Amino acid sequence: MKYIIHNQCTRNIVDFYRHVAMKYRHTYSESLMLKNIDYAVDSMFQIEQSLLRRKPILERWQKEGWHMANAGKWYYAYSIHDDTVIIEDACHEQNMH
């Protein structure tokens, strides 16, 4: 299986953890930020393998006809074309509304 990850997905993850780091700069270390980013990005490669396909919660994802997968606190919207998983969007659970 091949994976294509839209740049916006990675940006969403990095931006989220940068904001956390700025807000909690005295308690949230750079190494923990990098670990969290790595986990969220690496999890995308488990879609359609160990992460189960789910019906999207967000209406905008439903309208696009995307599937959804969840890993930890991150939700991923994706589509499948032949043997390629295209990760379209990534959203932290705090922003799932």
Protein model, in words:
With 97 residues, the chain is α+β, with helices and mostly antiparallel strands. Helix content is 38%, strand content 27%. It has 3 helices and 4 strands, in the order E-H-H-H-E-E-E. The chain has helices at residues 7-23, 30-43, 59-64, and strands spanning 2-5, 67-71, 74-81, 84-92. Strands 1-4-3-2 form a 4-stranded mixed sheet. A hairpin with a 2-residue loop joins strand 3 and strand 4 (84-92). The chain is globular and about 45 Å long. The model has no long low-confidence stretch (mean pLDDT 96).
Identify the notable features of this structure and list them briefly.
3 helices; four-stranded mixed beta sheet; 4 strands; 97 residues; alpha+beta
Mean pLDDT: 96
Give the N-to-C terminal Cα separation. 31 Å
Please trace the helix and strand order, writing H or E for each element.
EHHHEEE
Could you say which overall geometry the principal axes of the C-alpha atoms support? globular
Q: Brief description of this entry?
A:
The chain is α+β, with helices and mostly antiparallel strands and 97 residues long. Helices cover 38% and strands 27% of the residues.
Compile the SSE list and pairings.
Elements: E1 2-5, H1 7-23, H2 30-43, H3 59-64, E2 67-71, E3 74-81, E4 84-92
Parallel strand pairs: 1-4
Antiparallel strand pairs: 2-3, 3-4
Helix pairs in contact: 1-2
